[in-house]
Amino acid sequence: MSENLRFDGRVVVITGAGSGLGRAYALEFAKRGAKIVVNDLGGSVKGEGKSTRAADEVAEMVRNAGSVAAVNYDSVENGDKIIKTAIDAFGRVDIIINNAGILRDVSMLKMTSSDWDTIINVHLKGTFSVTKAAWKYFKDQGYGRIVNTSSGSGIYGNFGQANYGAAKMGIHGFTQVLAKEGEKYNIKANSICPVAASRMTQDLFTPELMELLVPEKIVPFVVCLCHESCKENGGLFEVAGGWFTRLRWQRAQGAFLKGKFTAEDVKKEWTKVNCFNGLNDYPTGTQDTIGKIISFSSENAKPK
Ligand code: NAD
Fold it and tell me: Is 268 in the pocket of ligand 1 (CB under 6 A)?
C-alpha cells in the first residue's frame, strides 16, 4: 500500500459516526480528503431515544478539519435514506463503514423477542440496509469499499449477548458473501472485530485499559481497508490497542466412515474429529468441503 493513503474525491458514509469509533473514523477521513456522510441516530447505548446533537457536533468537527460533511439522522434500518443523503450532497458513494450499534445484554432465560429483534434490526438488518442501498452505485462505477463491524462476542461468544453475538457473527457471514459477489466489480468487503474504549465499554474496562484501547488505534487499520489500494476481500480482522491480526477457519483431521454407520461408530472417531495437530487445512468455500467428500468416497470405492 502507498505511504500516502488519500481519499480526495471519495465519498465515505460512516454510520454511528456521532461517537466512539465512528467519530474517530470521520475525523481521520476528513484529514485525508474524503467527503463524509455523518450518520447517527443519537440514542442511548441501549438504543433508546434519538437526537441530532451527536451527528451535528461531528459534522462540525469534520468541517473544522477542512473537509465537507453531510449529516443524516436516520436509523441504519433505513439505509436508503442514508445513501440518498450521500447522493444528494455529493453525487456518489465510494465507501461505507457499517459501524452503528447498540447493546441489549440479558441472559437467555430473560431475553425477550424485543431484545432479540432490536439488536438484530440495528446491527444485522442495518448493515444489510445501508449496503443494499449503496450496492447498485458500487456495481455501476466498478468500485466500492465496505468495512463491517463484527465482534468477538459473535466469533467467540460472550455471556448475556445471544442477540448481539448472533447479529455480529451474521454480519461476518454477510461480509463473506459480499466479498464473493463483489469481487468482479472491484467491491471489497471486510469485517473487523474491534476492542475499543467508548461509552459502550466504559463500564467494563479499567481506566488503564480505556487509555490503551482508544478508538484512534483502530482507525489506521480501517483506513487501509477502505483505500483503493486495498486488495483484501472477505477478511475478518481483530483490531485493538495497536494489535492487528487476521482470523480464519481451520479444519481438523476429521473422520470419514463408509457405508452404513452408527452413532457409536462416530463416537469412536471423536479424537480425529477434533484433532488439529500438525494440520494446515484452511477451507474457504463449500466447494472445498464437497471436493473432500467426493475424494474420500472415490478412494473408499476403489477395490482393495
Ligand atoms: P458507541 O456507542 O460510542 O457508538 C455507536 C454509535 O452508533 C452511537 O453514536 C449511536 O448513537 C449510533 N447508533 C446506534 N444505533 C443507531 C442506529 N440505529 N442508526 C444510526 N446510528 C445508531 O459505540 P462504539 O464502541 O464506538 O461502537 C461502534 C461499533 O463497534 C458498534 O457496532 C459496536 O457494536 C462495535 N464494537 C465495539 C466494540 C468496543 O470494544 N467498543 C467491540 C466490538 C464491536
Answer: no
Compute the distance between CA of residue 279 and CA of residue 287 in angstroms, rounded to an integer.
20
In DSSP terms, which residues pair with 12 in a beta bridge?
36, 95
* Number of other CB atoms surrounding residue 43 within 10 Å: 17
Which atom number of ligand 1 is nearest to the Cα of residue 121?
18
The answer to whether the beta carbons of residues 73 and 97 sit under 8 Å apart is no
Low-confidence residues of the chain: pLDDT under 70: 1-3, 300-304
Specify the length of the chain in residues: 304
| Exposed / middle / buried, residue 171 (Cβ in 10 Å: 0-12, 13-18, 19+) | buried
Q: Which residues are catalytic?
A: 164
Contact present, 65 and 27 (Cβ < 8 Å): yes
User: Which tens digits make up the pLDDT trace of 76-131?
Assistant: 999 999 999 999 999 999 999 999 999 999 999 999 999 999 999 999 999 999 99
- Report pLDDT for 304: 44
Beta bridge partner(s), residue 237: 192, 246
| Residue 263: how many other CB atoms lie within 10 Å | 6
Find cell 462416530 and name the residue.
266
Question: Hey, what's the cell of 231?
Answer: 486488495
Q: Is the CB of 18 under 6 A from ligand 1?
A: yes
C-alpha 245/C-alpha 111 separation (Å) is 33
Cell of 115: 431484545
